[in-house]
Amino acid sequence: MTKYDISSPAVIVDLDIAERNIERVAVSTRKNGIKHRPHIKAHKSAYFARKQLEAGAIGVAVAKIAEAETMVEHGINDILIAYSIVGAEKLQRLKKLHQTARVMTTVDSLEAAKGLAGIGSPENPLPVLIEIDCGTHRGGRQPGEDTLRFAMQLRDFKPLQIKGIFTYNGNLYHTENTEQLRGLVGQESQLLTEAAENLRQHQISVEIVSGGSTPALLALEQLHGVTEIRSGNYLFNDVSGIQFGTASVEDCALRVLATVISTPLPGYATIDAGSKTLTNDLSVRGEECGMVVDPPGAQLVDLNEEHGYLRYDPDRVEVHAGDRVEIIPNHACVLPNLCDRIYGVRGDDVVKEITVDARGRNY
Questions:
Q1: For the residues 178-189, what does the mean pLDDT come to?
Q2: CB 233 within 8 A of CB 254
Q3: C-alpha to C-alpha distance for 194 and 190, rounded to whole angstroms
């Protein structure tokens, strides 16, 4: 079966490109002496998690407990839940995971710490990373005295083991050029390095310094003192990555395959992929709803739930009902969560159906 035989709209992954992306980042992180704990949010699949581990990843990062549960069900047992865990129901589930797998989580409040303390014991403490706010104000303690004071309070929770520190530098996604991005990566490194040194001076162990992201791969040499990074989007890449400079079209493994269902006017066509397939996410520096790579010259200008609107120059581009259209999404991480399966291809041939094991497991 070829990719053109798949019922559309479909999400496809060029496995040659994906495997090349995995290997490229594995080599780069090893070269820079940084461990890699890829975030599974991009694929939510045990298949790709295993590929990343086979290439040298030390474990995986997830956002939600349900994703961690799914990975453990598939034999993946070294997991960072990069999310604040609060609430009795979630704590009970985390306790079960702690009994069967190597699970860490992040913490940035005494309220959360009190709940987490009920999971571990002095004999089998729950490993935690202290989250530090890198300027996005999404979560974390403030750098400096606030982080130190919290760490010293956290040290009194004997069922918890402080393993290190953690940050997420979302400001990288708002940079305008590579020079600015490198500067922000350097600031992230400085923030983490100073925090780690401050804690160590007060006899607080910092084994893990966790930062980094896919944009930070452009400046790994700036991440001095960072012990592991959590890039995720690098596996598939997308239009935002192309605009950032972290990827080229040839590095974009994940595509949407759609079909033209109507050509109401010259230069106008409608496809069967809308926001329920591509999402409404815009790229970081553009207004189109994805990059049309086939047919070249067409633009995807708008989406309804089940329809996509193409515009093209009819004197240069021919489009007919029934034609297949291939699109690189603006934000690849969201698409697998909308699918039960994605199709692995090599060339035009479908060679594997890959189950999105953690689809919808956002709780």
A1: 91
A2: no
A3: 6
* Residue where a domain stops, chosen among 235, 262, 279: 235
CA 298, CA 275: separation in Å to the nearest integer?
18
CB 58 within 8 A of CB 228: yes
Whether residue 60 sits in one domain with residue 127: yes
Total structural domains in the chain? Answer: 2
pLDDT tier for residue 244 given thresholds of 50, 70 and 90 = confident
Show the domain range for 325: 3-9+247-355
Task: Calculate mean pLDDT across residues 130-154.
Answer: 97
Query: Would you state the structure tokens that stand for residue 30, as one six-digit string?
Result: 């090893």
Q: What is the pLDDT of residue 174?
A: 81
According to the model, what pLDDT value does residue 179 have? 87
186 and 256 share one domain? no
For residues 220 and 253, state if they share a domain: no
Reference 352, options 71, 21, 41, 6; nearest CA is 6
**CA angle 120–124–126, rounded 5-degree value:** 45
Query: Tell me, what amino acid is at 148?
Result: L
**Same domain, residue pair 206 and 102:** yes
CB 25 within 8 A of CB 4: no
| Structural contact between residues 23 and 30, judged by C-beta atoms closer than 8 angstroms | no
Dig out the tokens for 18 from the structure: 């994906």
pLDDT tens per residue, range 337-362: 999 999 999 999 999 999 999 999 99
User: What is the residue whose two structure tokens read 């083991």?
Assistant: 161
Q: How far apart are the first and last CA of the chain?
A: 36
- Domain of 329, CATH number, reads 2.40.37.20
Identify the residue whose tokens are 């780069």.
Answer: 28
How far is it, in rounded angstroms, from Cα 289 to Cα 275?
Answer: 9
Rounded to whole angstroms, the Cα distance separating 300 from 176 reads 24
On whether both 198 and 122 belong to a single domain, the answer is yes
Strands 60-62 and 78-84: parallel
| CB distance 75 to 104 below 8 Å | no
**Amino acid occupying residue 326:** E
Which value, to the nearest 10 degrees, does the dihedral of the CA atoms of residues 257, 261, 264, 269 take? 0
Short-list 311, 249, 256, CA closest to 278: 256
Q: Do 224 and 115 lie in a common domain?
A: yes
CA distances from 19 to 102, 179, 326, 348 (A): 26, 28, 20, 16
